[in-house]
Specification:
There is one protein chain. The protein is α/β, with parallel strands linked by helices and 466 residues long. The protein has one domain: Alpha-Beta Barrel (TIM Barrel), CATH 3.20.20. It is 39% helix and 15% strand. The protein contains 15 helices and 15 strands. The chain has helices at 17-20, 33-38, 56-70, 81-84, 94-109, 125-129, 137-153, 166-176, 186-210, 233-256, 261-266, 280-284, 348-360, 388-406, 449-460; strands at 3-4, 10-14, 74-78, 113-119, 159-164, 216-221, 226-228, 291-294, 299-303, 329-332, 366-371, 411-417, 436-439, 444-447, 462-463. The strands form 4 sheets. The chain has an 8-stranded parallel β-barrel, surrounded by 6 helices. The radius of gyration is 21 Å and the shape is globular. It starts with a strand and ends with a strand. Bound molecules: 5-hydroxymethyl-3,4-dihydroxypiperidine (IFM). Residues 16, 19, 165, 294, 370, 417, 424, 433 line the site of 5-hydroxymethyl-3,4-dihydroxypiperidine.
Length: 466
């Protein structure tokens, strides 16, 4: 059986600036929090940094050529804030903006639609030194930055997303500390979450006023598909808590203009949320043209039988929890084969999320802005790279997307994470998510079998049966 996707469905692949660009000290770019963090001993596996990454800054024309060869219709990339506004304040920096203009022009020349993400975690270090996301001012700085990028690229980029996975920025960056800036303060994490929401709203306002009317706005969230281990009241309460902290803390303000009452109760011993000002929620609930969903694996939780903080699963190792106020929640391995990240392969999570937001935000188109898997891909003796597990993962998840569309979900796009192997945050270069293999010492790109397979799906709009 073959699954046919709707006409016009957009097939793309995604990357993010710090993970691929390199050229960290070129053309006026200043350090971001990820430069500082990755250069701090012990923070990233093997001491890896994004200094060179996969050198996309210099090789973007070849990389776009590979996308065109595969037949991709869209490329999701992010702008490096410290490249285009090096101090995080003041006017835009022309050389940095020129790079993105060249990238976008190359994409358009090849018939590939750009999807631009403004913030994929690389806050200018100067703004972190001034307090970072726990401080309200950072949200206003983000709105200024959004306007700069919109003024420079709004004539040629139609699809915009404000933030990528604000949960990671807030709770891995300021809670468990496995991501930059590496702080471990639960109250700072909650403050960061609110100011990221505010940044989204202010940024969306700035984009709307700077972009031509055809500009389309979205945000990429990583909502959790979280299941209770049993139907016991304690396990259901654990599920509710994690759902509030992982998903509703962002989706409720952005889509409905409110914070969940249970989130405020669960965190009342930590914070009174007085940093949420009266008018903030109206700003945050800015009308969107689409919701971006990033999804990899579901979670299974239960009530914890002891007082240990929940483990930081899948993003790095920390004694500090990324879940403020949820110290009585335990995480369990969901069923399914495991990827190289230790994440289980269970496409029902993606289906459930698509149906959830179809019910919760009727009429709002959905895009899968990230989905994919890391495996230990190695070239054969003849240099070919066969990655049947990745093909199986993608096939299963795309079948789930197709099923959701059949059940009424208005899904418009799918972006594979990732176009090519790259810097996987706290894991450095040890985890390979790419459909294109990168030999890091030589920067040679080689299509894996999954790239050829995905290219065929993208070109035909059809998912062949396994
Ligand atoms: O590599 C990341 C990406 O930057 C954000 N979403 C999850 C991916 C895999 O961990």
């Amino acid at each position: 059986m073959t699954y046919r996707f709707p006409p016009g469905f957009l097939w793309g692949a995604a990357t993010a600036a710090y993970q691929v660009e390199g050229a960290a000290q070129e053309d006026g770019r200043t350090p971001s929090i990820w430069d500082t963090f990755s250069h701090t001993p012990g923070k990233v596996a093997d001491g890896d940094t994004g200094d060179i990454a996969v050198d996309h800054y210099h090789r973007f024309r070849d990389d776009v050529g590979l996308m065109a060869k595969l037949g991709l219709g869209a490329y999701r990339f992010s702008v490096s804030w410290p490249r285009v506004q090096p101090t995080g304040r003041g006017p835009g920096f022309q050389r940095g903006l020129d790079f993105y203009r060249s990238l976008v022009d190359e994409l358009l020349t090849q018939g590939i639609q750009p999807l631009l993400t403004l913030y994929h975690w690389d806050l200018p270090q100067e703004l972190e030194s001034a307090g970072g996301w726990p401080e309200r001012d950072t949200a206003y700085r983000f709105a200024d930055y959004a306007a700069i990028v919109a003024d420079a690229l709004g004539d040629r980029v139609e699809m915009w997303t404000t933030l990528n996975e604000p949960w990671c920025s807030a709770f891995l960056g300021y809670g468990s500390g496995v991501h930059a800036p590496g702080r471990t303060d639960p109250v700072a994490a909650l403050r960061a979450a609110h100011h990221l929401n505010l940044a989204h709203g202010l940024g969306a306002q700035a984009l709307r006023s700077a972009l031509p009317s055809r500009g389309r706005l979205a945000v990429s969230l990583n909502p959790a598909a979280v299941r209770a281990r049993t139907q016991a009241p304690g396990d259901l309460d654990a599920q509710r808590r994690i759902d509030a902290l992982a998903t509703r803390i962002f989706s409720d303000p952005m889509l409905h203009g409110r914070y969940p009452a249970d989130l405020f109760q669960d965190t009342a011993r930590l914070t009174d949320w007085s940093y949420v000002h009266d008018t903030d929620l109206a700003v945050i609930k800015h009308p969107l043209d689409a919701l971006g969903i990033n999804h990899y694996t579901p979670s299974v939780v239960s009530a914890a039988t002891d007082n240990r903080p929940p483990r930081t699963d899948g993003h790095g190792v920390s004694e500090h929890s990324p879940w403020p106020g949820a110290q009585h929640v335990a995480f369990h391995q969901p069923p399914g084969d495991l990827t190289a990240m230790g994440w289980s392969v269970d496409p029902s999570g993606l289906y459930d999320l698509l149906m959830r937001f179809t019910r919760e935000a009727p009429g709002l188109p959905l895009m899968i802005t990230e989905n994919g898997a890391a495996y230990e891909d190695r070239p054969d003796t003849d240099g070919a790279i066969h990655d049947p597990e990745r093909i199986a993962y993608l096939r299963a998840h795309l079948a789930a997307v197709h099923r959701a569309i059949g059940d009424g979900a208005d899904v418009r796009a799918y972006f594979l994470w990732s176009l090519m192997d790259n810097f996987e945050w706290a894991y450095g270069y040890a985890k390979r998510f790419g459909a294109i293999h990168v030999d890091y010492p030589t920067q040679t790109r080689t299509l894996k079998s999954s790239a050829r397979w995905y290219g065929e799906v993208a070109r035909t709009g059809e998912l062949p049966a396994g």
